[in-house]
Every structure is written in structure tokens, then in C-alpha cells.
Amino acid sequence: MSDRPAIALVGPGAIGTTIAAVLHEVERTPVLCGRTAHPRLLLRHDDGEIVVPGPVLNDPSTLGEPFDLVFVAVKTTQIADSADWLAALCDENTVVCALQNGVEQQARLEPYVNGATVLPSVVWFPAQREPDASVWLRAKPRLTLPDVPPAQRVVDALHGTRCMVELSGDFISIAWRKLLLNAAAGLMVLANRRAGMFSRADITELALAYLRECLTVARAKGAVLNDSVAQEIVDGFQRAPADLGTSILADRQANRPLEWDIRNGVIQRYGAELGIATPISDVVVPLLAAGSEGPG
Ligand SMILES: NC(=O)C1=CN([C@@H]2O[C@H](COP(=O)(O)OP(=O)(O)OC[C@H]3O[C@@H](n4cnc5c(N)ncnc54)[C@H](OP(=O)(O)O)[C@@H]3O)[C@@H](O)[C@H]2O)C=CC1
Ligand SMILES: CC(C)(CO)C(=O)C(=O)O
């Protein structure tokens, strides 16, 4: 690391609070950049809680020079609104680690980061934001990053924290596997139910058929994934606590815009590009889009 400011985090919500808290525990507290000026962040986990002292800054013009490492944990629907933060925090020497779902993190962030290196990640852990803005961490924090040189900055920053970081030489396949999980989780929005709904035989059949469709597109885009992935994902939902939700369901229930395009629309878009029929996406995607944007 240089002698410039070390670590900043944009978007201190469910995932951002988790990463800020694990960094704070090892005295690498990031500068917190948000929309709402919370006085502090609070993470509840299995063994207790971590308070990250604030404030959460909410005015990008108060920042000085760019940072070495910037974690971005706004929803992908909020990237454009975060443009002033990204412009102030990033230059060509910055590594921007996207803590977001989807397989398009680089393409979506690169226009905003002043030539910084955008490092995608897979965020494996569920975290739930409570009405008082505290966050309930519902699994051990774990990230997968591509095994490329800029990833070392993230590995160093998270070294010795309670967040496990894995590097993968086949990041594309890992990222698509996670995307498939997120795509199937989108069915929770349409049913307005949590993971317990996957114990129904009809939902199991629908999810498996949808996942097989997603798998065809994923493979055509270069992911190396076995047929068994569809069943493994459904098994995972069936083993999960019945009240485990997903971030897109939390957004729907709060009537916020949904990440439908990066989680579900992406399958339909790439299917159309590649000449792959996506009949289940053709039903699921417009319903999610309408749930997000209306009108009505
Ligand atoms: N939650 C989860 O379990 C998981 C989420 N993900 C992915 O991680 C990403 C983040 O999701 P999640 O943490 O759930 O999202 P949240 O909605 O909990 O957090 C988003 C945060 O971004 C802040 N924000 C919004 N607009 C701006 C802005 N213009 N400038 C700065 N900050 C802003 C929000 O502020 P405010 O306080 O005002 O709301 C909030 O703190 C998403 O891509 C999601 O799909 C991936 C795996 C699991
Ligand atoms: C928790 C998980 C893995 C389930 O879809 C997720 O990625 C999310 O909630 O956005």
C-alpha cells in the first residue's frame, strides 16, 4: 500500500456493514461513504456484535485524495447515483472491489472509476438489514476473487479478519454458479416468500427447470458447470432456514428498485444474443421488471 488513504467503502448497507465491521475489528476501519449519514454501523453475528464508529459521510466533496482500495457495496441500481463518490475516491492507482451480485461488475463500474482497476467478487454470505439499519449476518463471511495481481490488495486488507477470501483461477465459472443461485432466488420475489417455499414440489420443479435454462446460457458464456449444479442449488435452498430471504426480496418488500436485470434479465439478454431460447426467463423477467418499475 502507498501512503495515500488506505481503504474506503461506498454503500454501508447489509454487505458493506459486514465488510466495514470485519475490517474495523482488525483496526483497518474504512472511510464510510453513504447516502444516509448514520452515526455508526452495527453488525450482529453469531458470537455477538461489532460497532463501527461513524459517521457515515454523505458528501463526496469533503474527500481529499483518491484511495488505494475502494469496496463498492451499493446495489447495482444505485451505481449511477454513487458517481460522485467514485469520482472522488478513485484514480488509475486505485483497486475497486465490487461487492455486488452479477457477472457484469466490471462493465457496470468501469465508466465511473477514473481508470481504476475494477476487481469483481462473489459475495457468498447472506446479510439482512434490519429496520433500525443494523445488519444481521446470517453466515460466515466469504468472498471469492479472480486470481489476478490486483486481488492481492483485497487479500492483504482482509487478512486476519473473520471474512474468508478465496482466489480462483476459473472465476467465470464461480461467478456464474453464484448468478444461478441469485436467479433462482428471484422466484422468492414472485411468490413473496422466503427459502421455505422451496420445500414445495411444484416450486422445486420450476426452480430446476429455470436453473437448467440458466445453465445452458452460462455454459455458452464460458462457465464450466456440471448438470448437478441445478439440483445442488435447490438442495441449498431446502437446507436453508425457512425464513432466509434474499436481498432482492428485501428490496421488493420495501418497494425499492430491484436488481432484476443483473440477476435475471442477464440470462434472457445473453440467451437472445446467442440464439438460446429462454422461455422461463421470458415469463420471470417481465414480472420482476414490472415489480421493480411498474407502472401501476
Ligand atoms: N444482502 C445480501 O445478503 C447479499 C447482497 N449481495 C449483493 O451486494 C450488493 C449490495 O447489497 P446489500 O448490501 O444487500 O444492499 P443494501 O441495500 O443493504 O445497501 C446498499 C447501501 O448503499 C447505500 N447507498 C445507496 N445509494 C447510495 C449512494 N448514492 N451513495 C452512497 N451510498 C449509497 C445505501 O444507503 P442508505 O443507508 O441510504 O440505504 C446502503 O447503505 C448488491 O449487489 C446485492 O445483490 C450479494 C450477496 C448477499
Ligand atoms: C444471500 C444470497 C446468496 C441469496 O440469493 C444473495 O446473494 C442475496 O441475497 O443477494
UniProtKB/TrEMBL annotation:
<keyword id="KW-0521">NADP</keyword>
<dbReference type="InterPro" id="IPR013752">
    <property type="entry name" value="KPA_reductase"/>
</dbReference>
<comment type="function">
    <text>Catalyzes the NADPH-dependent reduction of ketopantoate into pantoic acid.</text>
</comment>
<feature type="domain" description="Ketopantoate reductase N-terminal">
    <location>
        <begin position="7"/>
        <end position="148"/>
    </location>
</feature>
<dbReference type="InterPro" id="IPR013332">
    <property type="entry name" value="KPR_N"/>
</dbReference>
<protein>
    <recommendedName>
        <fullName>2-dehydropantoate 2-reductase</fullName>
        <ecNumber>1.1.1.169</ecNumber>
    </recommendedName>
</protein>
<dbReference type="InterPro" id="IPR013328">
    <property type="entry name" value="6PGD_dom2"/>
</dbReference>
<keyword id="KW-0566">Pantothenate biosynthesis</keyword>
<dbReference type="Pfam" id="PF08546">
    <property type="entry name" value="ApbA_C"/>
</dbReference>
<dbReference type="InterPro" id="IPR036291">
    <property type="entry name" value="NAD(P)-bd_dom_sf"/>
</dbReference>
<keyword id="KW-0560">Oxidoreductase</keyword>
<comment type="pathway">
    <text>Cofactor biosynthesis; (R)-pantothenate biosynthesis; (R)-pantoate from 3-methyl-2-oxobutanoate: step 2/2.</text>
</comment>
<dbReference type="Pfam" id="PF02558">
    <property type="entry name" value="ApbA"/>
</dbReference>
<comment type="similarity">
    <text>Belongs to the ketopantoate reductase family.</text>
</comment>
<feature type="domain" description="Ketopantoate reductase C-terminal">
    <location>
        <begin position="170"/>
        <end position="289"/>
    </location>
</feature>
<dbReference type="InterPro" id="IPR003710">
    <property type="entry name" value="ApbA"/>
</dbReference>
<dbReference type="InterPro" id="IPR051402">
    <property type="entry name" value="KPR-Related"/>
</dbReference>
<dbReference type="InterPro" id="IPR008927">
    <property type="entry name" value="6-PGluconate_DH-like_C_sf"/>
</dbReference>
